[in-house]
Design brief:
Length: 118
């Protein structure tokens, strides 16, 4: 059974930091590119950041460049998203996503809520 379990969300003041983690099981983690998406109420889900299988390439949405950093630990089957200088517009449900390289196979986590508010 494939599971992607996010943690680390919560309420933070503007300018603060949070670190999201996604622990996976049931997949050969090294074969998957990993991403974080987010979705705010009334909006479409958007791609936030991606890291390739071996961690040698990353990509970020323009809105988070310089503030967020994606990383992975292939020994622990985990992908992380360090979020600094958070803004109210970062408020959303954040989803972990696994895409098997070279195929259409993919999986989603259940989501973790991030609220940025004073």
């Amino acid at each position: 059974q494939v599971q992607l379990v996010e943690s680390g969300g919560g309420l933070v003041q503007p300018g603060g930091s949070l670190r999201l983690s996604c622990v996976t099981s049931g997949i050969a983690f090294i074969n998957y590119d990993m991403s974080w998406y987010r979705q705010a109420p009334g909006t479409e889900r958007e791609l936030v950041a991606t890291i390739t299988r071996h961690g040698d390439n990353t990509n970020y949405a323009d809105s988070v460049k310089g503030r967020f950093r994606i990383s992975r630990d292939n020994a622990k089957n985990t992908v992380n998203l360090q979020m600094d200088s958070l803004k109210p517009e970062d408020t959303a449900t954040y989803y972990c996503h696994a895409q098997r390289w070279g195929t259409q196979r993919h999986y989603w986590g259940q989501g973790s809520q991030v609220n940025v508010s004073s």
